[in-house]
Amino acid sequence: MTGADTDVALDRLMPMHLRLDAALTIRHAGPVLLKLARSQDLTGRGLTEFFDLDERVAHPTVERLAGRRLNLALRARPEVRLRGLLAPYADGAIMNAAPALSGLDRLRDHGLELSDFAATDALVDLLFLIEARSLTLLEARDMVSRLEEARRTAESQAVTDSLTGLSNRRALNEELERLTGRGAPFALMRVDLDDFKHINDTFGHASGDSALRAAARALLQATRRDDTVARMGGDEFVVLLADVTSPARVERVAERVLSLIRGALPGAYRLSCSLGSTLSVQYTRPSPARLLRDADVALYAAKAAGRDCHKMFRGAAA
């Protein structure tokens, strides 16, 4: 077999080999090494000119390198690290190389594909496993992301009214427990749309839903970011005004709510509401149930006064 025939065979069987002469000058390089060298012509270059050898190899010769496990790095691309084994051959040597295990998952970054390696090379199986692991990790990350998104959606839906996007009864109860538990001052305002049944019966449920959404937007517009606006169900809403201790401040918010609700719907639709409020500072030990009940008393007083107005509860402390 001629030298050319040997090179062709080794290119197929050991695509990361070098054929060297006795002085460790490269006479032929396998196609994968050429690919890593970005197709430079390596013929005639010294082994140590192309590779940075293990520091323990001083004054390398065929005899000193033969049979040793060599740790190699391309001088032009030091991030490309290889393992090598050199054996004497004819009047020189053959050195075969393989990617270092620590760099297997970065082979694609170096422009290498599975098809670059011999089919019998165990490295192909390792690369398949690495590829499978990468795909599995991507799938796992995607699954975790989707599960996290589903969890956030479920949590949001659990405390959100689906029609208006406001907090729901559960979220309101949790916020009431939090506020009363830490003794923070606040006002509780109950909101009930006037003649909502008439809107549903006259214009249909779709119009009723539109009215509820318009009322929700008006309540959000009338309040601050730190306040809580919740839909209790039907046409009943509750507003928690954080850090409010003054009836005058509640009255100002109420006037704004009444005004915005009146203009919430266009054209022939006329919307109004009745409001009943109470202040937590009126109570020695405020409880959510007591606050809701007393605000409801004030709400009925507003209904009895002709609707489209606001009443404050001013009962005895308890």
Automatic annotation (TrEMBL):
Recorded hits in SMART domains, A to Z, give:
GGDEF
| Domain GGDEF as annotated: residue spans | 184-315
Q: Which PROSITE patterns match?
A: GGDEF
Recorded protein name is: Diguanylate cyclase (GGDEF) domain-containing protein
* Organism of derivation: Tranquillimonas alkanivorans
Pfam (any one): GGDEF
Which InterPro entries did the record assign? DGC-Regulatory_Protein, GGDEF_dom, HNOB_dom_associated_sf, Nucleotide_cyclase, Rev_trsase/Diguanyl_cyclase
